[in-house]
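Example 280.
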Amino acid sequence: MNKVIYFLNNNFVEKDRAVIPVNDIGLLRAYAVFDYLKTYFSKPFHLNDHIDRLFKSAEYIGLKIPKTKSEIREIVLELISINKFVESSIRIIVTGGESPDGKKKGEPNLIITCEPRNEIDKTFYEKGVKIKTVRDYREAPIAKTINYTMAVKYLSEYFPQGYFEVLYVHNSKITECTSSNIFFIKGTKIITPKDEILPGITRKIIIDQASKFFDIDERDVYLHEIYDFEEAFITSTDKEVLPVISIDTHYFNKGIVGEKTRKIMKLFKSYVDSKIWFEN
Ligand code: PDD
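Predicted structure in complex with N-(5'-phosphopyridoxyl)-D-alanine:
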């Protein structure tokens, strides 16, 4: 079997050799950003959008990315073609580098990993998933930093209890899930939180595609409003469009995946299959 190849700073290296010092401030203080994308038809989906967001995340925390956007694009394309997986998942990570004292940053490390694409069990799309709320929020939600500490804690606690995702509620407002954006449907309206979220690339695509058939309402969404909504779904690169049948003890549409959510799932699939995104 061929060895998996990653990119580290200036070189393509075997996965086992992609190592950085343990006193990297990314490890010591979570001073690092990343972005995550995958391929369809062996082409990276919305690569430019993911690279743009990576640069915005880095700028937000004052971290310099040691390559240009077009250099990163070329490296990702080459990494996909070297590894030759049928479909790939790609993670671009930039850390703050070796810290002399555990406080100052050093020379940033750029790591790009490439693995066979993750797939989510099909039954979750047919039956929908349950979500648990927690009173919490992500620090600097606009930036995709590597700090998912509480996400890991919550998911390890609630996933075994049958919850697929955990939803952050902050000051009574619904914001986002640990690694997804959330949407609700009522009549011809699609409602989704606007602030204190990661600007998801899947979210943006869904808003563009769904606006042909629904009115899109990006606004503050309060937890008590869920009783008024008919359907719900979450979006992310890894999950695409995943129907939500319940939040805590409240069930939408009697716990059955609704027709409008199915339409949104189809819209996303048609968009992917159309290949019009190839240049993105
Ligand atoms: N997470 N909100 C958060 C907090 C996320 O971590 C993600 C993505 C999203 C959805 O963004 P996008 O549609 O661009 O994937 C929203 C990825 C999948 C992850 O952490 O692995």
